[in-house]
Amino acid sequence: MTSRRSIFGWAAACLAVLALVTAPARAEDLAPDAMILKVSNEVLDTIKTDAAIRGGDVNRLMALVDNKVMPNVNFQRMTAAAVGPGWRQASPDQRQRLEGEFKTLLVRTYAGALSQVTDMTVTLKPLRAGPDDKDVTVRTEVKGKTQPDPVQLDYRLEKSAGEGLGWKIYNLNVMGVWLVDTYRTQFSQEVNAHGIDGLINLLVERNKAAARKG
What's the burial of 212, exposed, middle or buried (CB within 10 Å: 0-12/13-18/19+)? Predict the structure, then answer.
């Protein structure tokens, strides 16, 4: 059975190539489910041909995330939700550091799993949302040669304020587990025990350890 970590890697790959949904495709004009499907198809094509991403090149992936992906993800909301009530206690500088370290944690954690997405296919489920809804869940199923049973991979998206800004992802559900909720439990325990600076230090140390492992 494929591990939850490797499936999270598939999710990270979906985010990592969001940059490919660029202006000519006018992703901001698409419905949320159509946008996710387009992104997923771009993932398939890119992972098949980009040996560096497929091989887990962290520097390449980090640069892609920094320059292209973040505009398509509400990462501040994602980080705030993962930190939980402690976010309100954090200073602007602490929030900035939390966002940076959390992003690094996610990218480094899942980069090694990117090589597993070369043969996956994505099926879109019917969207349960009204035309005026601003917050929706797009549900998909992922299958691969090494994962014959469909894997649930869902996205929560919000409609950005302002014309032409489109939809932004702020959470992922892999096999019934919401990514942000998983981290919130861990982070809340650390904040309760050691405060915001304690959580920042924990993330820094995790990232350093991951960097040493390559």
Answer: exposed
Neighbour count for residue 106 (Cβ, 10 Å): 22
pTM above 0.90, yes or no: no
Q: How far apart are CA 111 and CA 134, in angstroms?
A: 31
CA distances (Å), origin 203, targets 46, 50, 139: 30, 29, 30
Determine the CATH number of domain 4-213. 3.10.450.710
Rounded to whole angstroms, the Cα distance separating 174 from 194 reads: 29
How far is Cα 203 from Cα 194, in angstroms, rounded to an integer?
13
Nearest Cα neighbor of 79 from 170, 14, 11, 204 is: 170
Predicted pLDDT of residue 212: 82
Contact 166, 30 (CB under 8 A): yes
Q: Whole-angstrom Cα distance, residue 175 to residue 55?
A: 24
pLDDT digits 0-9 by tens, 10-35 = 555 555 444 333 333 455 568 888 88
Specify whether the CB–CB gap between 14 and 38 falls below 8 A.
no
pLDDT digits (tens, 9 = 90+) for 82-97: 999 999 999 999 999 9
